[in-house]
Amino acid sequence: MSSDPTVSNPENYRIMWENEFVRVLEYTDVPGTTTTAHTHPNSVMVTLSGFQRKLMSGGHEVEVVLPPGKAVWLAAQEHAGSNTGDTPTHTVLIELKGDAAGSPADPALGPVAPPVP
After folding, report:
1. Which of 21, 47, 50, 82 is the most exposed place for a label (fewest CB within 10 A)?
2. Which residue in 27, 15, 17 sits closest to 74, CA to CA?
3. Rounded Cα–Cα distance for residues 33 and 82 (Å)
4. 73 with 44: CB under 8 angstroms?
5. What DSSP element (H or E) covers 115?
6. CA 60, CA 55: separation in Å to the nearest integer?
């Protein structure tokens, strides 16, 4: 099984653009959708719709609720996810490559929103 989300969950992830520095993915789902485990390098996620989901990894779970139009940091991680809300999810992920990609060996799970200025 591939850990690349475009291979493990091709019905949800689509490559929009890619070069040697970044890969840009579009993610979509509907309520009740659950993805198989996959990895992301260090990434910036931009929410195009608001959503509620649960992320799971290594026996840990985190609930994520984000409004539309939010940009958040997603540290390198492996997870599976489930849309636990009542709306579809639509996001764009800008995945970093090379040294900036990081390693999912760290215990990160879920996004980190920047502080409000």
Report:
1. 21
2. 27
3. 6
4. yes
5. none
6. 8
Rounded CA-CA distance 101/98 in Å is 6
Candidates 105, 60, 103, 50; CA nearest to 81 is: 60
Q: What is the pTM of this model?
A: 0.89
93 and 45 Cβ atoms separated by less than 8 Å = yes
Cβ neighbours for 11, distance < 8 A, ≥ 6 positions apart: none
Handedness of CA 76, 47, 83, 116 (dihedral sign): positive
Q: Which residues contact 53 (CB under 8 A, 6 or more apart)?
A: 63, 64, 81, 82, 83, 84, 85, 89
